[in-house]
Amino acid sequence: MANPDLPQPKKLRQTGQFQPRWEDLNVDCLANVFGRVGITALLLSVPFVCKSWYRASLDSACWQRLILPDVDTEIDLGNEGFWNSDNEIEAVIDRRPEIFRFDTLMSRFEQEYQTGHKCLSDTQFITFVVKRSRGQAIFLRLPPLCQITLLNRVADVCHGLKGLSLHRCSLIYSSSIILELIGKCKHLELLSLRGGSNNLEELLLQISIHCKKFCRLLVLNTVIGREDALAIVNLVPNIKYLSLRKSYIHRDNLITLFRGCKELVLLDARDCSGFDGGDVEILALASQIDKFSCEGSRNGDWNS
Description:
Elements: H1 27-34, H2 39-44, H3 51-57, E1 65-67, H4 80-84, H5 97-100, H6 102-113, H7 122-132, E2 139-141, H8 148-157, E3 163-167, H9 168-173, H10 175-184, E4 190-194, H11 200-210, E5 216-220, E6 223-224, H12 226-235, E7 241-243, E8 248-249, H13 251-260, E9 266-268, H14 280-286, E10 291-293
Parallel strand pairs: 1-2, 2-3, 3-4, 4-5, 5-7, 6-8, 7-9, 9-10
């Protein structure tokens, strides 16, 4: 039975007859499939196919990967390879921002569910999505400038997270709540920081204390200084997957990471600045790990 607290589709689109019929498929099977299609399809497509699909889409198993669209990143963090395997270097790059824009999703949601233009705030919408997971979310990506009320809600219910992606704006204005959230996520394995972070050491300290399975860190478009490199080496020395896409990192700090992170199997330093991709010492150290990529990187100032 549909939850009366949740918005309902304005109507269910008619489908033709199939053998076997969609409504006869096992709900658990449908939920397993729907959990892989992404938030946009789960909200705007799946519920409108037939009543069976609509009912299955309400199952919390469909909402374990809450990868909400962003507004400024070109990396598709919803790509299955990024979250669940060691193929980060082959992660999908999509330069069609309208596909992943959060405001576009909000607008289409209001249209499909006839909630009225701007009837829902960003916080109400994301809270609605988080509620559907019923505390079962495994992966979560939040857009920038999340309200404190939303972050408190997430910190209260999303304790089973294995992957968390945050924008630096959330870290600047709500750092204490973010630290509280990380402290509750005992199973966290992956942290993605978009737009940089001014408190990387503080975040990694909480991870070193509470998240014993942590092994993946992505820091996009920031400056990796000496203190940041040492924090990675000292606080999460067993890290296996490290991505520094579009960041500035001096060669000495990159060498510190190679020498200090003994368990490293992948380092993605594409489109970075601060070191020469042909540096003999760097290449010698990189040869000791399974995957290293530095295409597009150059020895120069950040964003020069």
